[in-house]
Amino acid sequence: MKPMTDSVTTMADLKARVLAFARERDWEQFHAPKNLSMALAAEAGELMEHFLWATPEQSQAVARDAAKRGKIEDELADVVIYSLEFANITGMDVAAAIERKMVENAKKYPVEKSRGRSEKYTDLK
Amino acid sequence: MKPMTDSVTTMADLKARVLAFARERDWEQFHAPKNLSMALAAEAGELMEHFLWATPEQSQAVARDAAKRGKIEDELADVVIYSLEFANITGMDVAAAIERKMVENAKKYPVEKSRGRSEKYTDLK
Amino acid sequence: MKPMTDSVTTMADLKARVLAFARERDWEQFHAPKNLSMALAAEAGELMEHFLWATPEQSQAVARDAAKRGKIEDELADVVIYSLEFANITGMDVAAAIERKMVENAKKYPVEKSRGRSEKYTDLK
Amino acid sequence: MKPMTDSVTTMADLKARVLAFARERDWEQFHAPKNLSMALAAEAGELMEHFLWATPEQSQAVARDAAKRGKIEDELADVVIYSLEFANITGMDVAAAIERKMVENAKKYPVEKSRGRSEKYTDLK
Lengths: 125, 125, 125, 125
Description:
Four copies of one chain form a homotetramer.
Chain A: H1 11-24, H2 33-49, H3 56-64, H4 66-90, H5 94-108, H6 111-114
């Protein structure tokens, strides 16, 4: 089997990988959208924990720290795994949803108005 | 441009899409790992909000409710968008991280021990 | 010193307890509202983790399980500690904010309309 | 009724206020620990949203901004309301749990070792 990397792995490949893991363990019974959304949020919390007291600038170094990077990759993986399983269980197409959302975002944040600015679109003038 | 769907879109395609959006707006300056982890967790919270008072069983219907499904897809998209941008900014390969994490998970949760059970691996006998 | 319990401890007592702990360690420098809101959310994630795969009904038993109750109390304590420190650092009066919010909530959720119903106020007819 | 403020309001007063609100609406049926932990985490996410792109330093100004302060107080109130209701439903004494946790924290973070340092206790030397 060739290694899974971002450049050759489709969302469908990853979704199938995650679903097979759950099916093999008969875990779909636990994977209600409610439960998966909780698990996802809990993992997002664990990802954040690495950066609580660092400044945004320092957080770059934290993410590259040899002793922490592996753990941070694990937390990110967990977040995406639960996102993919949420999509599996609810029958959502993630790439299509992202594409649609980015088209929407582009309307809310036109380049000329939002360049270099972090305000919410409702506060952009 | 052909439509982005899970079956034809690689993680690298999605990462590039998200990065281009940020670059065009000169937003990389705001995208410290700390900030992205917060944004990701906040979006995970919004995804959860759709399921707060539903039972796990009812949450299946919520996710398929015509009036709510679009919003739920949007929240899921936001979570994955921030995950991808986190990977962009920190130079992580998400598919590789998922593959590695699932190999680990398979050791923690051997099929014969974990089938049909939701206990944490530390509680499995 | 008499023991701190809910019936005799004011919010101001608890806020002072938490602030003294931080001051003694010269930690106020790390306690920016941004950082405290992250820490709070991360602890809320840890509290949730105890209930991921339980049904709402089962979660009652989880919270009363002798082996888990102490840990769950610890997570709840952490959430409230960070809430109090957030109030300390920003100069907010928590009890007054709660009272004001509950008056607002009572308008959004009049008893006759919301009795026994879990819909969001925007969906109540 | 005298106004509720931190200096005169006990945790028991606030817990009773929150419980009465839920009882009047027959909402205890929805307030399983699982559901309350989700609601709490979702509100924590909303509190965080105010600070996503601000630096820690800037977040002080955000919390004092006249246009935002009321909303931030509302989010903090929501977090504490759900914490109190969680304590109500599970029969926990919040002040006692906080006192116990702070004694524990004082052991993990002795003043001489932790002064001015933000490392996790497991990383303190």
